[in-house]
Design goal:
single chain; alpha/beta; Ubiquitin-like (UB roll); seven-stranded mixed β-sheet; 14 strands
Length: 400
């Protein structure tokens, strides 16, 4: 399952965001390093299910379908807060960074109201500039990556050069435990503008420039501008957007309130919505009702609490993924057991039919003959580029 990393300095609301997105019960407190061990949970991204196009009832196995909307699961990991110097173990840095090894993208939770200082300690809203929090995380991850490569880099680089080995492949193999692919390494070398043929001549600065590009390619970052309900946050949200990041204003506390109230049947609320409906006013206390009234104003101002939007922008915009539905019978849209539209897969835009076969199972990729589009019944070659919401049957050779 694809994994998103939830990162940031201590006390910015990461764990509340995690609880709101997953309905978990991870501990939350108003002091740094409440999170020591990583919290791991599952959230979902929404996609319009093809069942509505085919006018049939689906029977999902790896996801859920509610009123024609497919909820595709995504793992999310909330790690210990990061402070400057984490790459050398300051705070809980080494533990934090190791927990992020397999994250495909990072959601950096920023205190947009400036109510926590550089160390994650509470301060008066507006007294800390959240712009100062954006860059340090990228630097820490880059320095951590450089540390992983620099341990025996001279020996490694000489071997790659004099044995005429593929440098990108060699580095990718070395960093395979971080989910980094060979193509990521090749792109990073090119973007860093350093000499691929002479890695033994790379300076420390060259190596840092390379790993900075590698992080950008393999683990892109977006910002969740949290605490957007506080007045001081609005101008900072605009400033963060101008800095070039993909930014979504969020209020994790409000989302958690809404999801818990919905779970108890007190309100009707769809995650990501700009409104909710009170179902049992008699069962809601005065303070709870006032909290819901304030949340209603927040939804009208920002259009949502932002939590669901962050997850979906990370998947669909930052990582540029699409949803594809494999079936084994293109006429009935079923698997071997008769489940209708059983599975939904998140794959990168540009994925071909054969590459998708490998995603399902390596044997399917190796024995691939062609694919069939369940909508048009057309036969598709191995180079066919998948589209969002494609329903595809993979035809493979038998006997292997």
């Amino acid at each position: 399952m694809l994994e998103l990393g939830l990162v940031g300095k201590p006390n910015t609301g990461k764990t509340t965001f995690f609880n709101a997105a997953t309905l978990a019960e991870a501990p939350v407190a108003n002091y740094p390093f409440t999170t020591i061990d990583a919290n791991v949970g599952v959230t979902s991204v929404r996609s319009r299910c093809p069942c509505s196009d085919f006018e049939l009832k689906c029977n999902p196995q790896n996801s859920r379908c509610i009123d024609g909307i497919r909820y595709v699961p995504v793992r999310i990991i909330d790690v210990a807060g990061l402070v400057e110097g984490a790459h050398i173990g300051r705070g809980l840095g080494n533990k934090f960074l190791d927990n992020l090894r397999m994250a495909a993208a990072l959601i950096h939770v920023i205190d947009a109201a400036g109510a926590t200082d550089a160390e994650g300690k509470p301060c008066s809203p507006g007294t800390h500039d959240p712009m100062e929090d954006t860059g340090f995380l990228e630097v820490e991850i880059a320095l951590w990556l450089r540390g992983l490569l620099a341990k025996d880099w001279p020996k490694f680089a000489r071997r790659a050069k004099f044995e005429e080995l593929d440098l990108a492949k060699l580095i990718a193999e070395r960093l395979s435990g971080l989910g980094i692919k060979e193509k990521d390494v090749a792109i990073a070398i090119k973007q860093a503008g350093i000499d691929r043929s002479n890695p033994d001549k790379w300076s420390d600065d060259d190596l840092l420039r390379f790993v900075s590009e590698l992080r950008r390619v393999s683990k892109p970052i977006m910002l969740a501008a949290n605490k957007a309900d506080l007045p001081e946050a609005e101008k900072n949200v605009d400033r963060l957007r101008q800095s070039g990041y993909l930014v979504v204003p969020t209020c994790s506390d409000a989302e958690l309130l809404l999801r818990r109230a919905s779970g108890k049947g007190l309100i009707s609320y769809e995650p990501g919505s700009d409104d909710f409906k009170v179902l049992k006013p008699e069962a809601i206390s005065g303070p709870q009702l006032r909290a819901l009234e304030l949340t209603s104003k927040l939804l009208k101002k920002w259009g949502s609490t932002g939590v669901q939007q962050v997850i979906e922008k990370a998947i669909y915009e930052l990582l540029e993924l699409i949803v594809v539905y494999p079936v084994e019978d293109e006429n009935k849209l079923t698997d071997k057991k008769g489940n209708v539209l059983p599975d939904a897969f998140l794959v990168t835009k540009g994925t071909t039919a054969r590459e998708f076969a490998y995603v399902i199972h390596s044997d399917l990729g190796e024995t691939f003959i062609h694919a069939i589009d369940a909508r048009t019944k057309r036969r598709l070659g191995e180079e066919y580029v998948l589209k969002d919401r494609d329903v595809i049957r993979i035809v493979a050779a038998k006997g292997r």
